[in-house]
Write a structure and sequence with these properties.
mainly alpha; two-stranded antiparallel sheet; globular; EC 1.14.13.149; phenylacetyl-CoA 1,2-epoxidase activity; Ferritin-like_SF; 1,2-phenylacetyl-CoA epoxidase, subunit A; oxidoreductase
Length: 321
């Protein structure tokens, strides 16, 4: 993140106790005047992840939209891309209000500094993979942002998410409608299954480290989110697994009656061959440290997507100079 010259201590001058009293009184945080330095750092962090995710999803979806079976289907996919760009703008605009240099944040960061789920660094190469992404990735986005919408103590973002949630519902419906349609044909269904085989586990990773390995103190205490990583992962499986059962797509998860929770039926986390888009499950589970190393190294499309998003800005600067 590239902040302004002013340090957070000057931008957000309330004490931590004052912020806690404000929140305990049931009031929303409306701007810098209500924030402590710690609150400001935290809300900047979660807004950056959200905005970066929305932004990078646009070139990822646009790439796959070129495989649309008909022109009107391409139009539907492009409307989703436009929504994602608008959602990214909301996040960056709010960051601008919080003292972040938006142009530097979007156009001058190195690709590896963007913060979004690793899943978007793996290319979507077909219409089948695009609609599966709408069914899995957008469901993950919907679960995460719905939780923020319910729980956020940052008023401007909470109000903006009312619109975002409705549009994400459209993306999800687009994916589910197409998955159901394609699964009616055995040949098409096999291609949908192939997409699910690598994308389901990748989306399980989307929610981050398990609760036993991650401290959520400030995120939950200050209401940046309402649910832990494991709770969000469970909420996602509760929506996705029954739908996949309904359309006959196999996914490695089931409802465990004894534990009263969704259980993952494969080694997790596991090693992933990003070129072959294949999980090396026969090797057994790996450590979360190994997963974090893969995340930090980014995937094959990181440079390409970010460079494409920054290309116009950099070309204009070159002409001006």
């Amino acid at each position: 993140m590239t902040p302004t010259a002013l340090p957070v201590e000057e931008l957000a001058q309330r004490s931590e106790d004052q912020v806690r009293e404000h929140l305990a009184a049931g009031k929303l945080v409306e701007g810098l005047q209500h924030m402590s330095p710690e609150y400001l750092r935290g809300i900047r962090r979660i807004l950056t992840v959200s905005a970066d995710t929305e932004l990078v999803s646009a070139p990822a979806y646009l790439r796959a939209a070129q495989h649309a079976p008909a022109l009107n289907n391409f139009g539907s996919a492009v409307s989703i891309v436009q929504d994602e760009l608008a959602h990214a703008h909301i996040g960056y605009r709010l960051l601008g209000d919080l003292g972040v240099d938006m142009s530097a944040l979007i156009y001058e960061r190195e690709p590896g500094a963007f913060k979004y789920p690793y899943a978007f660094d793996v290319p979507l190469d077909s219409w089948h993979e695009l609609v599966m992404a709408n069914a899995l990735y957008d469901q993950a986005g919907f679960v995460l942002l719905s939780d923020v919408h319910r729980s956020s103590t940052f008023g401007p973002w909470k109000r903006a998410l009312a619109k975002v949630d409705k549009e994400e519902t459209f993306h999800l419906r687009h994916g589910r409608t197409w998955v159901k349609k394609l699964c009616a044909d055995p040949v098409e269904k096999a291609r949908v299954q192939a997409a699910a085989d690598w994308m389901f586990i990748l989306t399980l990773e989307w929610f981050g480290l398990p609760d036993a390995r991650k401290k959520h103190g400030i995120q939950l205490e200050y209401g940046f989110k309402g649910m832990s990583n494991d709770e969000l992962r469970q909420a996602w499986m509760a929506e996705v697994v029954p739908f996949m059962d309904e359309v006959g797509i196999d996914v490695p998860a089931h409802w465990d009656e004894a534990q009263q929770r969704w259980a993952i039926d494969c080694p997790f986390p596991a090693r992933f061959d990003e070129e072959a888009k294949r999980w090396l499950l026969d090797e057994g589970p790996i450590t979360w440290e190994e997963v974090q190393e893969r995340w930090k190294g980014r995937g094959p499309m990181n440079q390409s997507y970010v460079s494409r998003l920054q290309k116009g800005y950099r070309s204009r600067l070159a002409v001006m100079n």
